[in-house]
Amino acid sequence: MGAPLTPPITVLREARALISSPEKWCRGSQALDDRGNWVQGYHWKAVRWSAFGAIERIDCMSITWPLACLGDAARELFDRHASEVNDQLKHADVLRMFDRAIELVEAA
Fold it and tell me: Which InterPro entries would you find in this protein's record (predicted)?
C-alpha cells in the first residue's frame, strides 16, 4: 500500500500560497527555473509555477481532484479552461480561480 494522498483542500491551499506572489507565477509552462527554462512543476530547480505546476509541486500524486475543482472554478468564473485562465488572464484571476476551487472543495 502506498502513502496516503494529500487532501485536495490542502493541495489547493498550498498551491495557491506558492503562487500568491506574481514573481512566483508563470504562464505557458508548468514551471520555470531561475534562468527561465521550462521544468516540471515538481522539479527541484523550479522557482516559478503555473496553476497546474503549483499543484504538481505540492503533491504530484494527488492532482486529479484539485485539478477538477480548478477546472470547475475556471468554467464557472470565466467560462474557460483552467490552463486558459492561467495563460491568458491576470495573476489576480488565477488566484480568484484558486479561491473558488477551495470554496467548492469546502462545500463538498
Answer: DUF6197
